[in-house]
Each structure stands twice: as C-alpha cells, then as structure tokens.
Protein 1
Amino acid sequence: MLGGLFAFLLYRNETKLVDLGRGLKSLLAILRTLVIAGIAFLLLGPFFKYVERQVQKPIVLIAQDNSSSITMAPDSGFYKNEYLTELNSLSLKLEEEYEIQRYTFDSDLDNSFEIDYSGKQSDISKAINDMMDRNVNRNVGAVILASDGIFNRGVSPSFLASDKGVPIYTVALGDTTIRRDLLIENIARNRLAYLGNDFPVEIQIRADRLKGKNAVLRIRKDGEVLFKRTIEIDDASFVRTIPALLNAKNIGRQRYDVSLSPLAGELTEANNFSSFYIDILDSRQKVLMVYKSPHPDIAAIRNSIESNENYEVVMRSTSDFSGDLSQFDLLITHGLPDASGSAGNLLERARDKNLPIWAIGGVAISWKDAQQAGFGIEARLKGGSNTTDASPSLVRNFSLFSLSEEVSTAITNWAPIKTSFAEFFSEPSARILFEQRIGVVDTDQPLWIFSEVEGYKSSLTLGEGIWRWRIQNFAERGDFSAFDELVSRTVQYLATKEDRRQFRVYGKDKFDEDQNVILEAELYNKSYQAVNDPEVEVRFTDKNGNAYDFVFSRTQTAYYLDAGKFPPGQYAYTAKVSFEGRDLLATGNVTVEAILIESVRTTADHQLLFKIAESSGASMFYPNQLEELTDVLLSKEEIVPIMYSTEQMTDLIESRWLLFLFVAFLAIEWFIRKYKGAY
C-alpha cells in the first residue's frame, strides 16, 4: 500500500508525462511501487529458511604396518613389490564407491603412505586410536589393518578393537613359522654406577631351533673384550639369562657392546648385536647427619636417602663429630640446636661454608638458637617444655618442588608428630610445606618450613616422630615410596646448587634413533634478565670427528633447537653466543641409541590379527586374498552414504540480488523519464 500510494502521488499530476501512453505511465508507477514497497518490507526484518542437504560417502581407512619386522620374513621381496601393487589396486577399486584415507604406521601414524618398512617400533593400538580420532563424527564404514601383528609399544589392540564401533578387517602379513634364530632378547642393568665399583649386567638370550649348537657371548668396550662366555644351547626353544659383573673405569656415559657369535642358518644376524649405556659418576653426593642422641627418625631418614644411589649418608653424634664440613653437600641435624649447646657453632659454620641445612627440631630444640640460625621462623612458647601433637596438612600453593598425587593422598592419613606447644611466626620469604592439623582442625601454624636467604637454603621440620610416617606408608601401601619421595624431594632441593651461569644449554642427554634431538638454551644479562637478541650457534661432533652445525631458533625469551634425527652414537656439542663483548660457551653430550626391538620378535602374530577382526565384527584376510576383501567391502550393505541436513536462515535485507533488482527498476524508470523529458 505504501508503495502504491507513493507512486499514485508521484504520477497523478505529472504534467511532464502527459504525452506518455497510459501503458508506459502505468509501468513507471509499477516500478516505483515495487521499489518503495520492497524497501518498506525489508525494514520489517524478514528472513527465509531453507534446508541444505549434503551426502557424505562412506570412509574406508587403510593402515599399513611400516615396521622393519615385515621384511624379516624370507619372502621380503614380495612385500616390497607384488604386495604393494595389489594394495594399490584394492585402494583404487574402493575409491569408486568410498572415500579412501591411507596411512602407514610404526610407532606413530603417518598419512603420507610412503611404505619403506623402516619403522623401528610398532604400536598398533595407537594407530587405530589416532585414525579414529582424526575421523571422529564422520561416516567411517570400515578399517583395513595390514600388519604382521607384532607390537612392541602400547597396549594390546585386541582390547580396544571392539570399542570402536567399526569393523576392522585385518590383512595378515609376515611369517608365523618359528625360524632358526639366535638373539639378544633383553639387557637388564642399572643406569648409574660409580667410578671404581663393579656393577651387574644380565643378558637374556633366546635361541629357536638351534639345539646342540654353541654360541659365544661377548661384552666389549672400545673393542676390548670385558666378558666372554660359551653357551650350550640344549633346547629347541632355549632361553637363558647370563649374569656379568663389569668394572666402572671411566667417568661419564660409557657404551658397552654385546654380541652373540652368528650360527649357520639364522633368520637374521641383526639381533645378535646390541649395546647399552651406563652413566659412571665420580662420587655420590655426601649427606652428613648429626644428632644429639639416637632416635628412630634418624634411621628412617637414612634408609630413605640411601634408597637413592646418588647419595651417601655419613652418621655422626655431636660427641664424635670432628667438625669437618668440607666434604659434604648437605647437613641434616636432629634435635639441634639444643639448649645445652652440644652442637657448638655447627649451624653457624655450615652457613659460612654455604652448606645447606635440614634441621629436624625435636621437642628439646632451642627455638632462640634456631631463630638466630636463620630458618625464617620465630617461636613463642606457651607452656615452657609442653608439647602438642600435630598432623601434616599440605599447603597446596607450595612451589619449591612438586609432590606426586600418591604423596598428597598419603599425607592426609599420616600420624601426628610431637612439636613444641608454641605460636610460630614465619618470615615473608619462608615457604611452608606443611601446616599443623590439631585433631581435625587445620591451622595456619607451620610444621615444615623452607627458607632461602641470599642463595643459602635451609629447611626446618618443627617436630619429631616422622619415622611413624614411613612405617605407616608401608603398612598402607606395602612400600615406602610416598615417604621416600618426600625425603628425596627435600634433599634434592637443598643439595642442588643454583645455576648462575649467564649462558646455559639443556635438554635430554639420551634419544632413541627415531626421535629428534632437541635442545633449549637460555641467555641472561648481568642483571640476570633473560634475553635472546644475539644468535646462538651449536656444533655437534661424533666420535669420528665429523661436525654438524646448527643455529638455534628464538622463542619468546629463550632459544630452541630441533636438530632432527641423528644416527646412533655419542655426540659432544658446543654452543656459542657472543654477548656483551664476550664469547660464552656451553658444552654437553647426547647419546642416540639404536632401536633393535623390531628384530627381537620376528614371528608374525596372526592370532592377534584374527582376534582384532573377530571382536570388531570383521574378518581376517591374507595378502593373496585382497581381491576377495575388495568384493566383501563393496558388497557390504551396512557401509552406506549418510545424508546430513542443515537448516539455514538468511535475512532478506542481506540479499544482493534484491539490491540489484531495486537498482535496475529505478534505472529503468529514470531512463524512461529522462528519454521522455521528465527530468
């Protein structure tokens, strides 16, 4: 109506169009009516609704095992040639009906589908999980898993196949025949040893179908034979663990090579050789425990510390301590300082030598002397020598070190210890690990406190009887792990010297050969503020003198280097940065260990593949049945497209075609009026 009224008023008395025919004049009025009416209508905010439909083809996921165990079968040439041709043919035929996604896997899933059987480890369960995660909420109709069934990482895939809701068709590769083979199955040893000490090594060997043969086991270091033993194989399925005792003669990370003499007819000789590394340390960190009188706490702490072979504990009473602190990394006292002054100036001398202290304050402790010793706490006794029982309550925002959930849970049930009946005041710089719980009431009174003043670290446990915590830990859990972790974290924090170097490089010192070598670096100015303006270079050198140069990338305030994968071996590195007119250097070593696990198990596990297929509602096929597998998938009625409907709403005022239409109407009207002289 509005549009018609506007057009009527415009053209009713238009004298310039008197010569215009009635029909043409009516056309102009209609055009103006449509434009005005359309604009008025759009101002009401109309919209239109429509349904968009999309059809998604079923997805078939193909996962090909790319681990090296596939080609350890006698017919390895088949898997490198004919089999790959047949697999590609299967993929092309299925593409006519389905969307195909192809992956390879070893320890990780890769969508490049480049098959070279070079994978060092196999994780079938991770491959299945990752494929399904990448296609969550999509129309996955089936999975084709081509593998020999050998996995040496992750959980058994037979447990998860039934949970995926998708049939997993398996293609059984490899050879299930037990072949004649001699191999090193496992090497058990400690990671650390100390210079001059003997350390044990256990070599587990296996021999299949070699009964009556003899093999020679050797352990070498730098070509020198350190251990040799002849092994008589007296069973067709022979397994034996051979113990050896070696001596730690050199400091640092040392490599030892293990070999079994090859025997005629073996499937492969690659698994006759292995190596292991031992970190040889010059000496343990030494902890001095000084006590006024024997107490169960002392034995509990000593046993806990000595469970970590990095530490050596020396016990002394105040009466037989010589006073020499120079050879120790940490001082632990029990019941000291006391009012009798039996420890003399022990705490003062420790502070002068920057020797960290952990004081366990028995009920006879002199709180006045403790305050002067700089533990960051003041005590105001309420009842002379009276005591109270207090249980530990973990302070959640304690940040000097972290405790596992196991420790946090165990602490809630630990028995109370005896502490002085006093009101304690901690300095602002102090950090409280435990507060006192009296009965069932949590208080803000400290029970275990840490302090650091001008780089000097100390800790004070405000009570005695913590031996009960260790006993209770064992009674509840069958081990001392929670208590030992608490003591270990305390000792480690106190005994660790602060790193004040301007330039430092850090990272793992051991990588597997399928891992990228990664380092990080930090640079500080004289105010100890992190900077990363200058360029940081690093050179890796192998044992043959070959050098590999890299440049660190910058992060927000530091540096990062991903040097990629290195061949197995030992590498020394030197990082260099020019800063404030000086060249700063940081050195270190990394070891890249060979992964030989794929050569340990060489017999295919088709039973596992059958279980995966059966539990998921599918079937197992062999490489010569790929055409049959193709026919089965193409005939499956359950694998169908899915139609998705999406309801869409669009405001008409946002429609461009309406704008163009209105402009066109106005342009036509203007042209006719102009042509007829109405303007």
Note: Residues 455 and 497 are 9 Å apart (CA to CA).
Protein 2
Amino acid sequence: MSSLTWDDLFVDAALLDFNGLLVEWPGKVTGQVRLIGASAFGDLFFERRSGEVVKLDMLDGDVHFVADDFQRFSELMNSREWQQEHLLSEGVALLKDKGVLRGKGQFYGFAPHPIFTGAIDWSKVMPLDAVVWNSICAQSVASAATP
C-alpha cells in the first residue's frame, strides 16, 4: 500500500473557497467559524468561536463534533486510527495505488453518491472540482431526505 502525505489526506483551507462551499448547505453551519481544511473526500473541518472543532460530513450532510479544541484536533489528526475513520486513509491509499489522483482544489467524489447506495464503492471514485463535488453532495443529501 502506498505511503500517504498530508496533501493526500487533507486539503488546506487556503486552497478552498469556504464561503462558496457553505452556500450549498444553508442552515447547516451557523455562527462565526474558521475553516481548518477538508478531507480528500470533501468533509469540511472548521473551528467554532468556542474553540470546538466540528466537521460537515459530505456523505450524510450532518455536522459532527470532532474535538473540544484545535490542539486536541491536531493530536487526533496524527492518530492512524482516527485518520482511517475520519479521513478514509485506507481508501486514499487504495486510490493512489490504482493511479486515481486528485489535483489541488479537488476532492474525491463517488458516482453515485453513497447516500443512494448505502455504501462506498471504491471502484466508483473520481477526482472532482471541490465546488462540483460539494454541490453534488448537498443536492444528493437533500434529495435523499425528500420523501
């Protein structure tokens, strides 16, 4: 399995238009926040004014607690188990081994979105522009929630 770099697993906030991405998720993120970055799959990690770190999950559209503060978040980021669960590091390594690489400002996306299939299909992954994948996720989650 390929060795991974931080750039393989995480997209720095400086490479993303956070406000442009949040437009797709009205009401999901409220209050003053600071973007930290995103997983290779587009999950947005941000810090609330209270210091708490949370993520907007692209697979279910929910905001999930990550850590009490940025220092704890940094510690978690260095945990292999946490990387496997929250950054899908094993999937990133699989994609890298297969030569499926993403460029700067891109996320890995799934077609169809896992909310419709109930599972991640690693054979259906492709690099997509961050704004495009984010929009697909928001629309997919909204569509799946509509009876």
Note: The beta strands are 10-12, 33-39, 44-48, 53-56, 63-67, 106-110, 125-129.
Protein 3
Amino acid sequence: MNRNRFPIHKFNSIETPFYYYDIELLNQTIKTIQKEIEGRPFYVHYALKANTNSKLLQHIAKQGFGADCVSGNEVLKAIECG
C-alpha cells in the first residue's frame, strides 16, 4: 500500500476489521499483464480462493480475465460476477 494514496489518519475513523483495495495498483498490474501476454496464446485466470469480493471479481472480469475455481461455490460466484 502506498501511504500517499490513502492517508493513514483515515484508518482511525474506519470500523475494523476492513479490507483496503488499491484499485489504481490493481489496474496497473492488469495493464502490465495484458501488455506482457499481448499476441500470445495465454489466458489469465484469477484464483477465487484468494478473494471472493464481488466488486473485485466484476472488475477483474471486465478486464477479460477468467476465473480459477476449485469448488462449486467458486464457480457459481464467478458466473454471478461475470
């Protein structure tokens, strides 16, 4: 996490526990991956076992990434999120 992107003082007013997602960093990572695989026969899949946050999964799916699922519930979640 980059302290310049999220002022630490805001953590004092947020109820815990919570997750902080750096969408800007995620987008940079996605663009890097897309650039590296461009023109190659690769398919990138996100492992749902790592995180099943619906908004995160929808964002990743919109970028054209697939879902790596190991359970029926993960398959259902992947379908639900696109």
Note: The mean pLDDT is 90.
